[in-house]
Design a protein that fits this description.
The complex is a heterodimer of chains A (158) and B (389). Chain A is built from 6 helices and 6 strands. In chain A, strands 2-3-1-4 form a 4-stranded antiparallel beta sheet. A two-stranded antiparallel ribbon of chain A has the order 5-6. In chain A, a hairpin with a 6-residue loop joins strand 2 and strand 3. The longest helix of chain A is centred in the N-terminal third of the chain and has 13 residues. Chain B is of the alpha/beta class. Chain B has 2 domains: 145 residues, Aspartate Aminotransferase, domain 1, CATH 3.90.1150.10; 224 residues, Aspartate Aminotransferase, domain 2. Chain B contains 14 helices and 12 strands. The radius of gyration of chain B is 21 Å and the shape is globular. The termini of chain B are far apart. Classes of the chains: A alpha+beta (158), B alpha/beta (389). At the A-B interface, helix 1 and helix 2 of A face helix 12 of B.
């Protein structure tokens, strides 16, 4: 199962037949395992890894550090749930260290994102402070290189 | 000067490597994708490179012991013991060489007297016969067959032994077929060799690359250690081809003679590589396991694709090559490769380059990314479908 997930992480578009061949099991077995992983919530969805710059030149992403006050009953979960509900928000994680919630946001401009932070995030109950970092360039995302593949320098010497 | 007359006749008689021809042609074309390269596509694992950088920063790079760093020989001895059940004394039974190929060359030069015959199991890597010739030996081809999954059989071996046979040369896991030898296969071979004066040179450079089975060395069997020279190296297992580092392990009297030749011709293997190799043997099991897992995925993927194309290919269990038969296409290996290159711009090596017995096969290397393999396989499928009409 670990190997199956590994392969899907590298390329979720591999067909069941291709996965089956690579893992040395039957196609039915692969399809069953994937269904089980989906049902158990291990696999939450399938996405695509883009070179955002090529996909949309104006797109801007930011990473926002949020310091918050944990709520008496539910800690950070309630606030994280509210933030996860915003469409602009791509990722929400609870962090150890200097801040509490890490948020990834996509927008169509710097102003968009700044306004979102000021009007939506900073105003939420329990949010103490925000700190916004804009993404300038992406080199690697989810294990995939966002750059030219280095040329194959191997010759035929043997 | 009349070079033809003056230069060594033996050197001039050597034929250029037959692998090259197609790639020279391929280099003149655009958009060619290759399945021809015989070295890992992975970069050398970072801990090894980092150890090399540390060596450059902090140590002088002097000549080292002719046999190689003792520390490295100890580590090699330990590695052979823990991984392959072979026991060699670091002090006098291991010699660190410039790649496995130097160890092969040294073995021939150490063992052969003029006219001695060397049985070379084929298909095999292209360097053996020329090196035997350069050492005054006589290469004798010992073909293995697809019907036996390219394993050496006792019958085929017996048929080629003469009073002049000095050495049997084997290389499993095999380049170009990906074949392996199982314990029961060796048991039969060992019976033929026990009680003779025939030596064995076992090139085990791909020994860490087996799929679903563990490598068996012929040196493990009774009566074999005393007559066997095991050659191994860092190139394939640790993705360290350009570092040029290998070794031979053999009984002390053999290593002592080989060391003399090595001392006069080479002095010592590169010291930066030797220090980096310590790291490879000590701390890179996880990196190696990861590469093997990926090779295995590719191997299975290609086997499946070949089956879909209608190419018969025995399920190789070692190295990173597949050796499908293209007999059903009605073409021989040379023609197939040439047309495949012309029409679909895929470069593969005709099996005949590795010995007559492979003339109806092609060698496919899967030391390439899955994406690359997918595209190459699609092109091959198109080619085969077109020629089946």
């Amino acid at each position: 199962m670990k190997e199956l997930l590994q392969l899907l992480k590298q390329n979720a578009r591999l067909s069941d037949a291709e996965l089956a061949a690579m893992l040395g099991v039957t196609e039915q077995e692969v399809s069953k395992q994937i269904s089980e992983l989906e049902a158990a919530g291990v696999i939450r969805g399938y996405s695509v890894i883009l070179d955002e710059e090529l996909a949309d030149r104006d797109a801007v992403s930011a990473y926002i550090e949020l310091k918050v006050t944990p709520q008496p009953d539910c800690g950070f979960d309630e606030l994280a749930r509210i933030i996860s509900g915003f469409e602009e928000v791509e990722g929400v994680t609870l962090m150890s260290g200097g801040y509490d919630l890490g948020i990834t946001i996509n927008g169509s401009g710097l102003r968009d994102i700044a306004l979102f932070v000021a009007q939506r995030l900073a105003t939420l109950d329990g949010v103490l402070s925000t700190r916004t970092h804009f993404v300038l360039k992406r080199y690697k995302d989810k294990g995939i290189l966002i750059q030219e593949e280095p040329a194959d320098e191997r010759g035929v010497y043997q | 000067m009349n070079y033809e007359k003056l230069l060594s006749q033996r050197a001039q008689n050597l034929k250029p490597s037959p692998i090259r021809r197609f790639f020279d042609l391929a280099e003149t074309m655009d958009n060619v994708i290759s399945l021809g390269v015989g070295e890992p596509d992975f970069r050398t694992p970072w801990p090894i490179r980092s150890a090399a950088i540390n060596t450059l920063e902090r140590q002088s790079i002097f000549y080292g012991a002719n046999s190689g760093l003792l520390e490295l020989r100890k580590e090699i001895s330990h590695y052979m013991e823990r991984r392959f059940n072979l026991s060699y004394c670091p002090e006098n039974e291991i010699l660190v060489t410039v790649g496995g190929s130097e160890a092969v060359d040294l073995t021939f030069r150490t063992l052969l007297n003029p006219g001695d015959e060397v049985l070379i199991t084929e298909p095999c890597f292209v360097c053996y016969a020329p090196l035997v010739e350069m050492a005054d030996g006589v290469p004798v081809s010992l073909p293995t067959y697809e019907k036996n999954e390219f394993r050496l059989t006792a019958e085929d071996l017996k048929a080629k032994i003469t009073p002049k046979t000095k050495l049997l040369m084997i290389s499993y896991p095999n380049n170009p077929t990906g074949a392996i030898m199982r314990r029961e296969d060796y048991e039969e071979i060992v019976k033929v060799l026990q009680g003779t004066d025939i030596f064995v040179l076992s090139d085990e450079i791909y020994c860490a690359m087996t799929y679903g089975t563990k490598h068996v060395s012929i040196a493990e069997f009774d009566g074999m250690r005393e007559r066997t020279i095991v050659v191994n190296g860092f190139s394939k297992t640790f993705a360290m081809t350009g570092w040029r580092l290998g070794w031979m392990a053999a009984p002390a009297p053999i290593v002592a003679e080989a060391r003399k030749i090595h001392q006069y011709g080479i002095m010592c293997a590169p010291m930066v590589s030797q220090r980096a190799a310590l790291e490879a043997l000590r701390h890179c099991d996880a990196e190696v396991a990861h590469m093997m897992e990926e090779y295995d995925h590719r191997r299975r993927f290609l086997l499946e694709r070949f089956a879909e194309m209608g190419l018969s290919c025995f399920p190789a269990q070692g190295a990173f090559y597949l050796f499908p038969s293209i007999a059903t296409t009605g073409m021989d290996g040379e023609t197939f490769c040439e047309q495949l290159l012309q029409e679909e711009r895929v470069a593969v090596v005709p099996g005949g380059a590795f010995g007559e017995t492979g003339v109806n096969n092609i060698r496919i290397s899967y030391a390439y990314s899955l994406k690359h393999l997918t595209e190459a396989a699609n092109r091959m499928e198109r080619f085969i479908a077109r020629h089946a009409e």
